[in-house]
Amino acid sequence: MWDALNMVCKRENKGLNDLVTAIARSRNQSTLTAAIRVFLLTYFQAAATDEGHLRAGHGGARSRIRL
User: Fold this and answer.
1) 65 domain-assigned
2) Which residues, in sequence order, are CB contacts of 40 under 8 Å at separation 6+?
3) Is residue 61 part of a domain?
4) Helix axes 2-12, 16-26, angle to 10 degrees
5) For each of the chain's 67 residues, which pLDDT tens digit applies?
6) Three-state SS for 52?
7) What is the reported pTM?
8) Which domain range does residue 32 map to?
9) How many helical (H) and strand (E) elements, i.e. helices and strands, does the chain have?
């Protein structure tokens, strides 16, 4: 989880404290840990779309590996 948070911070050019504070402010009756997990899942789900891959500059929108 911490590695993923640090990856997001680097990609979004934000400090860890700033990111976690923003997540904490937006949570709705959940623990901070749960809110962070939901944020990370949502963030990486968006990156896993064809559009997300293109924005990230991963070459083509389709993966070369079939799952």
Assistant:
1) no
2) 1, 4, 5, 8
3) no
4) 100
5) 999 999 999 989 999 999 999 999 999 889 999 999 999 999 998 888 877 767 766 555 444 434 4
6) helix
7) 0.73
8) 2-56
9) 4, 0
